[in-house]
Amino acid sequence: MRRPVRVVPRPRALRPRGRPHVGGGPRRRRAPRPRRRARRARRARASAARVRDQARHRARSRRAAGPERAVTPRWPRPLVVAVDAVNRRGKAVGVRLVRYTGKSPHLIHPKHLVDAPWHDWYVEHLRETDVVLDVGCANGAHTLKAAQRAHRVFGMDYDVAQLRVAVADRRKLGLANVHLFAWDLTRRFPFPSGSFDSALFLDVIEHLHPRVEVLREIRRVLKPSGRLLVSGPNSETAWRQRLRTAGLFAFSDPDHKIEYTQAEFVAELAAGGFEPVGRVMPVVYDTPWAGVIDAVGGVSLGLYARLSRWKRDVALSRPRESTGFRVVARVTS
Question: What's this model's pTM, rounded to 2 decimal places?
């Protein structure tokens, strides 16, 4: 009786990779183009900066762990996990319900459909003669609001799909003083120095690497008397502390590279060449049920407006619990 032949697999190191090489001689590896090398270098710097930011936040969380437990009532970890899951899914559900219920043809957050002065806080700081730059304009919600007050508004963002939404809404509103274009915010802006009276930088800084360089570029294109209207996230609310204590991801958005204490936010602006004018203002209350409120907004904008007003009132009375900071800043000399 013949013994079966045993098939021995080829060692992993000897298995061919990719497409077979056709032709004589050794395979030549194509030298990377300068643009490709620059892109790799930017990604490497961004990755290193992200690691530094995360290490800094972990260190700060460990230092603050003792006082946090004394100040913030501790929730059972399964409850925190469940509430966090509902909160994160609720925002996506609210955005989809906005389109499904016909409130907007686009996937857009319900807060952009509510006429609330605390959402459009920057409008009162614009003049009719201002030329405004909206850095990271996304779907153009803030750009179009600013254009109804200012002389001209330029909006730029790297996301072409979001810019298409902004272009469609601009056409619907018939605004001829809005100019939109795609641009990588980490590159030098395509404007001469001193081109703008005001700049909007709303909930964008936390998504970027590097940040100080972008702030300095905004400072360059602003006039010496220019103003920066900027907002960023707060890392020290009770809900963020509960998430960190439970060992969960504590940033309010998965794409955030950093979140700030108020002192850190002001220091970041100072490093970019800006200083606050007046008080640092709160945004809205960082409730654990924000996702549920967003889902409600996809069904009823009236109820969402009332809940948003409640969140705003709580943030004014308890600024530490605000989702973020709003700052009017001027250029430092």
Answer: 0.77
